[in-house]
Each structure stands twice: as C-alpha cells, then as structure tokens.
Amino acid sequence: MTGKSGGSGNALMPSVVGVVAGGALAVIVYFPVVAWLQNVLDVPELTPVPAQFRGDTAPISMWYWATWLIPALVVIPTGLALSLWRRIRVFALVSTATFVLGSVAVAAVVISFETNGFAPD
Prior knowledge:
There is one protein chain. The protein has about 120 residues and is mostly helical. It is built from three helices and no strands. The chain has helices spanning about 10-40, 60-80, 90-115. Helix 1 packs antiparallel against helix 2 and helix 2 (about 60-80) runs antiparallel to helix 3.
C-alpha cells in the first residue's frame, strides 16, 4: 500500500468519475453540439431516402464531416492541457479518452443513418 504522497490507490475514484463525465458528454452533449454547428455553418441536410431508392444526389459537403470532427478537436487539446495539472491528471485523461471513444460510437451510428438513409420498408 502506498502513502498519501502518491500511488495508484488514489486513482480509482477520479477514473470512475472521468468515465461517467466523458461518457455523459459523449452521449448527451456531442450530437446536439454537432447539430448546432451544422445549423450555424448552414450545412445542407442529407436526404433521408434509403441509398437504394436515391437518384443522383449532390456530394456530401466537406463541412458536414468537419462538424463531426470540430468537437473532438476542441476536447482533446483541452483534456491534454488539463492533464498537465497533477491533481486532475487521471480524471482529465480518462474523461477525454472516454469522450473520444463515446463520440466515435455516436458519430458512427448517426452518420450511418444520415448517409445510408432511414425509412421503413
């Protein structure tokens, strides 16, 4: 067992809180921020018609992809900068990693629906 001066025994609670915080941000905040960015940047909406029933459509705007990437490009440097502060290093790294992994999952699901279309048969 290690003393109060440092050690891995003190890392469990910040890790758990980091997983919860990063997961909550990825699930609750990420998609609304992306939708807001798409609205602000006036990104054209994709057609909801399934891919097999579409005719020729315009290519997907570069800004569509950028709006999915911008939140991560803000969170990653922020999390890495906060990790320089020793007291919250574990929390910052764990929450950043959890946010990135969670946001990749959210983005994969939503982008799949948006690019392939979603309509009942």
